[in-house]
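Input sequence (113 aa), recorded before submission:
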Amino acid sequence: MVDDAAPTAGDAKRTATVRTTHADAATVAAALGPDETDSMRTRVDGDVVVCTVARPTTGGIQSTLDDHLVNLRVADRVIDRARSHLAAAADSTDALDSTDEPQTTDTDTQPDT
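Predicted structure, token format:
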């Protein structure tokens, strides 16, 4: 995945390069790896994910880049949601101290008569 060599799409005559900026570019690029084909090369340059596609036809490039951009957006959103979830969990853990008692509700208690 993190390969500087050109894509190996046989007799590819058309290439396109897409650069996108991300808070965690390395994780986004790693998430894209399983869907990468021989016609693609993805690398990380700081906070930028760089994907170069080489295909013999313009339609092939369009199709490959469309898939790449959808996968990129999904990866970025999942990572963002995971960070938000972890931050919220850390905030709720930090709010507790050793004197806090867990809140419980006893539903088996008989009413006083």
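Checked by second reader. The radius of gyration is 24 Å.
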